[in-house]
Design goal:
With 171 residues, this protein is of the alpha+beta class. Helices cover 30% and strands 31% of the residues. The protein has a single domain, classed as Alpha-D-Glucose-1,6-Bisphosphate, Chain A, domain 4 (2-Layer Sandwich), CATH 3.30.530. It has helices at 16-24, 26-32, 83-89, 93-99, 132-137, 146-160, and strands at 4-12, 37-39, 47-51, 59-69, 73-77, 106-114, 117-127. A hairpin with a 7-residue loop joins strand 2 and strand 3 (47-51). It is globular. The relative contact order is 0.22. Residues 14-159 form the Activator of Hsp90 ATPase homologue 1/2-like C-terminal domain. Belongs to the AHA1 family. This is Transcriptional regulator. It comes from Nocardia panacis.
Length: 171
Amino acid sequence: MSTLEFTSVTQIAAAPERVWAALTEPEDIRRYWFGVAMQSDWQVGSPVKWQNSPEEEFQDLGQVVLAAEPYHRLSYSWHLLQPTHAQLFGWSEAELAEYSKEPRTKVVFDIAAEPDGSLVTVVHSGFAPDSMMYRAISGQLTGSGGWGGLMKNLKILLETGRVHAVRPDQA
C-alpha cells in the first residue's frame, strides 16, 4: 500500500534558535497555532501533550517525540482525528469514527541556518490513500489552513512579532 506525504518549505528571517523555541514552547505555539498549545520535555520517547485552550488541561493524544536535535530537527508522531475536528468540519459521529481509523502519522521539522535566517522544511508522512487527515493538514478541507497556514502564521510571528493566527474558518 502506498502512502502520502506532505511537504512545506518556508524561509523565515529568524535564527534557528528562535524557530526551535517557537516549535517547542507552549506559549509561542499558542500564538501562531490558532490558540492551541503543545507541551513536552522534547526528549525522544516523551509524550507531546495538547491543550486546545488555556482553560483546559493538557491532553495526551498519543503523540510521542521521535527526534529532537535542538535548532536542527524535531519530529513526533501525529495525533488521530478528534471531536474538535468533527465540530470544525461538520462531521457526524459516524464519520469521525470512520476517519479515526486512519493510521497514526509523523511530522518532521528540519531547520537549516541560512544567511538571513532559517529554512524550515515540514514533512508530514505516513498517510493512507484517501486520508482525511492528509486533506486537513494539506489545507484541502474548508476550515483548515493546514501546514501552509500554520507556517505562514509562524513566519509572521517570528518576523514581525505580530500574530495573524486566525482560524481559516474565521477569516
